[in-house]
Structure formats: C-alpha cells, structure tokens
Write a structure and sequence with these properties.
222 residues, alpha/beta, Aminopeptidase, 7-stranded mixed β-sheet, binds zinc ion
Length: 222
C-alpha cells in the first residue's frame, strides 16, 4: 500500500488542541460548536467530536475520537466547509432542538451547500470499516450518485467492508443526516467510521487512506 501524504503530527496536534481538553469536553469559549468556512459547497460535520448530553443521563456520552480532527483537516485540504462540536451540549445526533442544528439551519440559509457529510465513530469490534447511513436511501434526495462516488473513492484507496445502511441507517433517531435531508432539503450521508481507521497514532496508514479517500471524493465535488 502506498503511503499517503497525510500529516500525522498535524492530526495528533489538532485533536490535542481542540477536542481532548478537559477529558474530551472541549474548550468552553462561547458557542458549543465551531464552523469553518469553505469555498466548495460541501459541509463535513462532526457533531460528536466531544462528549455530549442526553437528557436524563447523569454523565455525558463518549466522544467519537478524531471525527472533529477529520472535519478540520478536510476543510484545510479540500476547501470544504466544516462544522464540529466544540464543547459539551445536547446531542445533535439525537435532538432536533439543539444549538448545533439551529446553527446548521442558519448556515445553509446563507451559504450554498450541496451535500452534508456527517461523520461519526464506531467501535473497533464492528464488522464494517465504514457504514454509510442514508435513511435507506431517503437522505440522498434522489442524488444516489453521491453515494456511488463516495464508495468508489473509498474502495479506490483499498478500503474494504464499506457497508450501506447496515447497522447505522441514520434513520432511527433525530440524526443530523435525517434533519439535513428532511428539514433542510439538503442531501446528506452519515459515515460511521471504525476506530481502526481513526487512530493516527497507532494506525497512521489506515488513517491516511481514509483521509485520502474522503479528500478525493470531496475535491471532485468542488
Ligand atoms: Zn457519533
């Protein structure tokens, strides 16, 4: 496998700076999310970049490690838009009435966004490398070419076991993907990425192929 041009040190540093502080509670500096502007009409979203709250639970739910870093690095390398959780707040992938989705709604009113890619993390024991959630096709809003091109880009980097709506369909709860397509009218896909592809420290090559696949897919949409 060819070594991809991914800056592992930058990935580790980004995670360290923005997401790991306070035991993955992030940085409390105003809004509980961050938006980085882009020059191409694609938004990469990482709502679980830090710990998040479900009502009635005394402890926040665990973060999806490196998903915020992935969003930030893709914004830098492709010129796409990025949005990620920055500090603990209501779970944006569970509640529609939350600051993250209010901000998302405002963003797409002002800016042209053709596709929302919402990234998440799955445990290492899962059978898939990536499970693409499309609410069983509904969240693509007739744009099945986005899904086909994404699968082609990931497989093109040698990533096997890319499933579609296998475990995480993005349709079982108030996900960002469901909200984007149903409420905002923007095609969306949820990526549940296995931990073994989100660990640049232990597994830089896998992290590199993931980034390269996502990078090519997004660049081609620009
Ligand atoms: Zn998640």
């Amino acid at each position: 496998m060819e070594q991809p041009a991914i800056d592992v040190a930058a990935a580790l540093k980004t995670e360290e700076l923005f997401f790991k502080p306070n035991g993955y509670r992030g940085l409390d500096a105003g809004a509980s999310y961050t938006i980085l502007s882009g020059s191409i009409p694609v938004l990469v979203s990482a709502p679980h970049a830090v710990k998040h709250i479900r009502k009635g639970n005394t402890e926040p739910k665990e973060e999806d490690e490196y998903t915020g870093t992935i969003a930030r690095l893709l914004q830098e390398s492709t010129g796409c838009w990025a949005m990620h959780a920055a500090s603990v707040d209501l779970d944006p992938n569970f509640y529609d009435d939350c600051p993250y989705k209010h901000a998302l709604r405002e963003l797409v009113k002002k800016e042209r966004i053709r596709l929302i890619i919402d990234i998440h993390g799955a445990a290492e024991w899962r059978a898939f490398n990536i499970d693409l959630g499309t609410c069983r096709g509904d969240s693509l809003l007739e744009h099945s070419e986005y899904l086909d091109d994404l699968i082609t880009a990931l497989r093109g980097e040698g990533i096997q076991s890319v499933f579609v709506d296998s475990v995480f369909t993005a349709g079982a709860q108030s996900t960002v993907t469901r909200f984007a397509s149903r409420e905002l009218g923007i095609p969306a896909v949820q990526l549940e990425i296995n931990r073994r592809l989100r660990d640049p420290e232990r597994n830089p090559v896998y992290f590199g192929v993931l980034m390269q696949g996502l990078h090519s897919f997004i660049r081609d949409l620009g």
